[in-house]
Amino acid sequence: MKRTTGSLEADFHRDMLAIYDLRAKAGFRPVLLRRFVLLQGGVTAARKLLEQPGVTGLERLQQQDMADASMEALILKPQYEPLFTPQERKLAATLLAARTSSRSRGRLNAVADRS
Prior knowledge:
Number of strands: 0
Helix content: over 70%
Structural class: mainly alpha
Distance between the termini: 56 Å
Strand content: under 5%
Oligomer: single chain
Number of helices: 6
Number of domains: 1
């Protein structure tokens, strides 16, 4: 059974709010993200946040090994592909990969410095 765009948007909205709940359990409460999602809707909020990289809390999530709980990771889930353009999905993947690789380089540098 194929899901309608409206129900996909509702699912994405719910999952965006769940990101806040996951972050809150880790001691990071992005109140402005939650408010933005509630006011704009999950899909619109995600699109606007993609335009302003650095404001999603991705780096903080990666520090806590929770990158899979990021907005960028949510955008890349296969079930949400119809909600976003290929360019938006590519940007989300790029941001996720860039933050992950820079974090890995930082770890490698820290290990090398200790040697």
